[in-house]
């Protein structure tokens, strides 16, 4: 259990994508400098959250070595990361009813900031916002953000009844804090989408180790 000055926050790693640009398979299981991307994400977020779960579809046994509870989407048809966020909100409500906030992060971002949760909460509170998302290099990263568990029924309605898929269309309905991180010496929200990105991640891992 992590002791912090901000609200207790459950973390969810979103690994439900189909990885078509890498020829299929689980992107977080790719290796960078001898460690899987997922290992690197867990190492970054575990100290910041009071617990971590993994959102993934298919056979959960393939993630057994990581020791995380695997929670699948319950909205059919691979509707995208909003379904993973909803699954995490529902899991938290059922299993950790005392927790009001969930931090979502992409399972293929190996260099996440070590102050991610703290800064998102700080900016959310300062702006009196309902949600908070990360940004860098002039680009928002809505899959990396804070979500209030109490909004899960509204999110389910948007997904199931309205067939809404894009995160930024949903977040636009609420007061939103966008928190920006610098991109030097590296963009902390770099994600590995292609085989070429893995080669770039090897270079960035050396920079990250030196920073």
Key phrases:
alpha/beta; Spore Coat Polysaccharide Biosynthesis Protein SpsA, Chain A; single chain; seven-stranded mixed sheet; 22% strand
Account of the 3D structure:
By secondary structure, this protein is an alpha/beta fold. It has one domain (9-210): Spore Coat Polysaccharide Biosynthesis Protein SpsA, Chain A, CATH 3.90.550. The chain has six helices and nine strands. The chain has helices spanning 37-45, 81-95, 116-127, 152-160, 167-171, 195-210; strands at 9-14, 31-32, 35-36, 51-55, 69-71, 101-106, 131-136, 139-148, 176-181. Strands 5-4-1-6-8-7-9 form a seven-stranded mixed β-sheet, with helices on both faces. A two-stranded antiparallel sheet has the order 2-3. Helix 2 (81-95) runs antiparallel to helix 4 (152-160). The longest helix is centred in the last third of the chain and has 16 residues, at 195-210. The two termini are 27 Å apart. Residues 18-24 have low confidence and may be disordered.
- Class, according to the CATH hierarchy? Alpha Beta
Largest sheet: 7 strands, mixed
Strand order of the largest sheet: 5-4-1-6-8-7-9
Instruction: Please tally the helical runs, counting DSSP H or I stretches of 4 or more residues.
Output: 6
Question: What is the third-level CATH name, the topology?
Answer: Spore Coat Polysaccharide Biosynthesis Protein SpsA, Chain A
Order of helices and strands: EEEHEEHEHEEHHEH
CATH architecture: Alpha-Beta Complex
Annotated CATH homologous superfamily:
Spore Coat Polysaccharide Biosynthesis Protein SpsA, Chain A
SS strand fraction? 15-25%
Count of discrete structural domains: 1
Give the tally of β-strands. 9
Q: Residue ranges: pLDDT <50 for 5 or more in a row?
A: 18-24
Shape: globular
Nearest-integer average pLDDT: 89
Distance between the termini: 27 Å
Structural class based on helices, strands and sheet pairing: alpha/beta
Helix % is 25-40%
Rg from Cα: 16 Å
